[in-house]
Design a protein that fits this description.
The protein has 123 residues and is mainly beta. Helices cover 15% and strands 40% of the residues.
Length: 123
């Protein structure tokens, strides 16, 4: 029986060759906020990857225990909007559209800050 799995991915892409050179995967988009240009961590991570840029994508894998991954499709945001379909026509589940709107497009400066391990007011 085939199973479907979804993962957020940051592709680290070479500016000159346009080739993807590395990936950072996570089940939760909030773990990848460092790649959002509005985040405080963005410039620091860019310094580790000179002449590279970060590309967000939602990956859909189909497969099973016997054959492994038998199909893969991608949904790349465009113009700061998450597509409603993957590149092969499958629908993006609503929960990922909501997660993108709430997490990626949020104003990063409104994130709660942590001081000595305690949660403080939003700034």
């Amino acid at each position: 029986m085939n199973m479907v799995d979804y993962e957020w991915d940051i592709e680290i892409t070479n500016n000159k060759t346009k080739e993807c050179e590395d990936h950072w995967f996570s089940d939760k988009l909030k773990d990848l906020l460092w790649a959002n240009p509005k985040s405080k961590e963005y410039e620091e991570h860019k310094s580790y990857h000179p002449n590279r840029h970060f590309v967000l994508v939602l990956v859909r894998d189909v497969g099973n225990d016997f054959d492994g991954i038998t199909g893969r499709s991608w949904a790349y945001p465009e113009n700061n909007k998450m597509p409603t379909e993957f590149d092969d026509g499958f629908k993006v589940p609503k929960r990922f559209l909501i997660e993108y709107e709430k997490v990626w497009k949020q104003k990063i400066t409104k994130r709660p800050i942590t001081v000595t391990g305690r949660r403080t007011q939003k700034v």
